[in-house]
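User: Fold this, then the next.

Assistant: Folding the first:
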Amino acid sequence: MKIGVPKEIKANENRVALTPGGTQAFVQAGHSVQVQSGAGAGSGFSDEDYAEAGAQLVSAEATWETDLVLKVKEPLEEEYHRLGEQMVFTYFHLAGVTRTLTDVLLEHRTTAIAYETVEDDQGKLPLLAPMSAVAGNMAVTMGNYYLAHFNNGKGMLLSRIFTERYGKVVVIGDGVVGRHCARAAAAIGANVYLVGRHRERIPELKREISADLHFVLSEPDNIATELRDADLVVGAVLRRGGRAPHVVSETMVRNMQPGSVIVDVSIDQGGCVETSHPTKHSAPVYEWHGVIHYCVTNMPGAYPRLSTIALTNATLPYALKLAESGLDVLRADQAFARGVNTYDGHITCRAVAEALEFMDRYVEFT
């Protein structure tokens, strides 16, 4: 099979969908890999690295004239004309982006396979997990930075000074993002409040994160109470394939202390904070009701070397299966097939169809 790896064109997106090591794995399996010149530069991989691994260095256009296109982020408007009936394997987050992209995928009968909805045999999301982990760790770093007074923050450093913990971090969601964020915040010494829906997980969460962790049952009144004196709030809510629910209302934000920080990691799926809207690395924050909002849609792109390696480690086994057997592997693997969001002019992910009010175009993938 012919594999294409274009350079990402999203603002400040320096990740690449395939490492030279991954390229070599495809070549050794008998496949042809077309990599756009310069695609790996932002992650520290040179054209020479790819050439030595057996890739052909080509133009952007040539990478799309392949059977399987590997990307990191969803195709942007400038790339729409290159979509066809090929398979595209990337983070689509269709429920959180404009409906236009879905229209184009349907029109061109593209097979869109979304990393974020692929499942494993345990029902987990193995291709979303590594970037969720990076974003969770990053949320604390970004939060601490924007809490600085020179950033109009309230001036509280999340930290431990001798034996005393300083700063209050409220993490909403106890999935991969939430757990990594809570663990990072606890490790630097902050007081951590983790909002979840399952009390029975408390012993597990305390073992994994910190014995000092505060668990908060996810109810609107409880969230509103904890946010009033929070220094950093991290939105880590996931609705698989669908738009994230607003669990933080504008009223809750209005009642937060000026100079507090919100990092809405759920922004890829529309955001879980009512006052959130997407931002870019070049202009990552804005203020609303005196609260600093960080809502970058491709957070892991800030650390492309780590993110590219972690992403490829997760996606490569799946991509190799696609290259070997095409759509047949999806028909034989129901968990993998949940990654198919569009196929043959139809939406094949119910959560996406519901979020975009496209149920008339929904069919199960077969």
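Now the next one, as you asked:
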Amino acid sequence: MTLNSTSQFIGKVYLVGAGPGDPGLITIKGKTILEQADIVVYDALVSPAIVAMINPQAEQIDAGKRCGRHSKLQEETTALLIAKAQNNPIVVRLKGGDPFVFGRGGEEMTDLINAGISVEVIPGITSGIAAPAYAGIPLTHRDYSSSVTFVTGHEMVGKYRPQVNWTAIAQASETLVIYMGVHNLGNIIPQLISGGLTQNTPIALIRWGTREDQEELIGTLETIIEQMEKVNFEAPAIAVIGKVVNLHHELNIYKN
């Protein structure tokens, strides 16, 4: 904590990764900060079990963003963090997964530093690693995959590039992990096939990864859209594409 030129109190903001949902996967450091926090601004995908770890005397602010339902704009959230840090020693920005993996943590950290606010990042386990593990899908395997690509399936208006080059991504590695792409799979899959993946390439959709209500939908690039429509499979979910998906039937021991 410091004092600025006008003798105004300045606290510290912690960008904390909550992990993918299982409360046992948050780091000890992250849990400790939550227990000490004065203010916690948290996202929609932070599980209730993690929220329950927050200091009961702390002010809790829901700044969650879900597809089609944005409670706060990114600029509003950053402004809120800056304002709260003016009068509170410990301000936590609690994010699902890891702050620096499709979590906008880099953007928020830049703005906070530019505003003269002290910031610390506490990493979390990202869903793209944890959810496949809980589904019995290793992202790498000596017989099937020695490389992984993580990519967002959600395109932001005004982004630095118009779209992900899915035809190039198709050949980038042997395993693809797509975040926030369930609603766009109908557009993504034809481009992956155009880029060289076959229609029978395995794909797994994992919803609410690592939580007790985790769900998996296993298919191929040819069948998965029809399967999704049949069972009304919706976000939040990640997609894993590649031969490693076939190991799900052998290694998915968590529901046996």
